[in-house]
């Protein structure tokens, strides 16, 4: 439905300007990380920077379409958009193209399209639509289960494509649901799972079980309103089972390269020879990325002057490792500005989300900020070696049409919803 011409729509230009700055600066870094040879032709569409410029041009048309459609369309047809998106994920198992071990792309001519990038916006719309329905109460268990199913369907389909990185992003919806009244027990459970998993891998299931029991029973005896003794016993048993399960999963389910990444992150490997071998093999990208960032210093080496970037020491640097180009060529100052702009964008979206009159728009806004935050945190943390290597792009920065269009759709649907605040009911 096209907007009515007699309505006045004003878009949040602060958000749009930050978006433009991130996309523009990202393109400059794609030029540095992918340019080969002495001459530079910005319109050489055989090179990644030329293709990205074409993607950016098509993005403008995409934005115009998104903003031209009536805001209520996205709420009314959220379920239809979600179903179409899920069918596109299922279709990959029949028509998908395998790239680097993941069957996540459709090959269309000389281009590839990754539907998982668009599934994020579709899932955000579907979750916001279901939870904001008058019949839904997120505090009720049956409604929680239905909401989790909406989120888990795309996550499971993407996991089957061997794309674990994109699957993790769906954990962002936890923040959205928590804002809308999801019981605190889920937050406690999530923190406990992460805490127990790390302790179990670092110190083993025995020490982890003892620590868990001490924490549980200490909290029990300090609680003035003591529950029955069976409760802490059950919690302790669950914690012990979880710590043993984590060790089993790590030893018997994860692939060798995944275990190596976790091992280096948690400093589990002590053999210097083994560590050196890992850095030459599966962790080569990370090792070179860290060296590129550290070589940038405070001010950086300058645009297209980074020796490790121009020397192509970091393979496929223009994709998931694009932030290492920022660190080398623009230094600490440039990296800080990029991080600040990302934070400003996310805070701006959260601020606008709180101003929404409808629960649907508010929830969708929180989904936008949460998804961007998880991508931002994981990608930059991965490039700097702060978290295990997980292959997901940096929003608006990394090379790729699907990623750029997916995040553009995600963000500009919210910009459209926000522009319609005066007409919300």
From TrEMBL:
Gene Ontology terms describing biological process: cell division; regulation of cell shape
Membrane-spanning segments: 13-32, 53-71, 77-95, 148-178, 184-217, 229-250, 330-351, 363-390, 396-415
Localisation per UniProt entry: Membrane
GO MF annotation list: lipid-linked peptidoglycan transporter activity
Pfam families: FTSW_RODA_SPOVE (PF01098)
Membrane-protein topology: Multi-pass membrane protein
Any single GO CC term annotated in Swiss-Prot or TrEMBL for this entry: plasma membrane
PANTHER family according to UniProt: CELL CYCLE PROTEIN (PTHR30474), PEPTIDOGLYCAN GLYCOSYLTRANSFERASE MRDB (PTHR30474:SF1)
The protein, known as: Rod shape determining protein RodA
Organism: Formosa algae
């Amino acid at each position: 439905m096209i907007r009515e011409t007699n309505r006045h729509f004003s878009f949040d230009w602060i958000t749009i300007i930050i978006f433009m700055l991130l996309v523009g600066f990202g393109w400059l870094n794609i030029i540095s990380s992918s340019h080969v040879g002495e001459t530079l032709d910005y319109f050489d569409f055989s090179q990644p920077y030329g293709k990205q410029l074409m993607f950016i041009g098509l993005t403008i048309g995409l934005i115009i379409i998104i903003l031209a459609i009536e805001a209520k369309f996205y709420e009314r047809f959220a379920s239809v958009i979600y179903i179409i998106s899920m069918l596109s994920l299922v279709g990959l198992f029949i028509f998908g193209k395998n790239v680097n071990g993941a069957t996540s792309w459709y090959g269309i001519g000389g281009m590839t399209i990754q539907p998982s990038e668009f599934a994020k916006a579709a899932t955000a719309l579907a979750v916001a639509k279901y939870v904001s329905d008058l019949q839904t109460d997120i505090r009720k268990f049956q409604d929680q289960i239905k909401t989790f199913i909406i989120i888990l369907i795309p996550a499971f389909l993407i996991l089957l494509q061997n794309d674990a990185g994109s699957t993790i992003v769906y954990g962002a919806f936890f923040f959205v649901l928590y804002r809308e009244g999801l019981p605190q027990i889920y937050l406690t459970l999530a923190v406990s799972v992460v805490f127990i998993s790390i302790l179990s891998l670092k110190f083993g299931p025995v020490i982890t079980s003892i620590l868990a029991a001490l924490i549980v029973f200490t909290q029990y005896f300090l609680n003035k309103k003591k529950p029955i003794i069976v409760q802490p016993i059950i919690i302790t048993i669950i914690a012990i089972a979880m710590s043993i399960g984590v060790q089993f999963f790590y030893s018997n389910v994860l692939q060798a390269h995944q275990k190596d990444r976790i091992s280096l992150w948690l400093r589990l490997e002590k053999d210097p020879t083994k560590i050196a071998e890992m850095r030459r093999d599966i962790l080569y990208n990370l090792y070179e990325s860290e060296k590129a960032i550290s070589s940038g210093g405070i001010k950086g080496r300058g645009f297209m002057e980074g020796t490790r970037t121009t020397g192509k020491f970091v393979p496929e640097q223009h994709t998931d490792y694009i932030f290492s180009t920022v660190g080398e060529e623009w230094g600490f100052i440039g990296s800080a500005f990029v991080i600040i702009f990302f934070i400003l964008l996310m805070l701006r979206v959260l601020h606008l989300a709180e101003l929404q009159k409808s629960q649907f728009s508010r929830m969708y806004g929180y989904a936008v900020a949460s998804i961007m935050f998880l991508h931002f945190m994981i990608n930059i943390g991965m490039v700097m070696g702060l978290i295990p290597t997980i292959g997901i792009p940096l929003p608006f920065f990394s090379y790729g049409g699907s990623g750029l269009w997916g995040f553009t759709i995600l963000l500009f649907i919210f910009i459209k919803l926000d522009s319609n605040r005066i007409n919300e009911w």
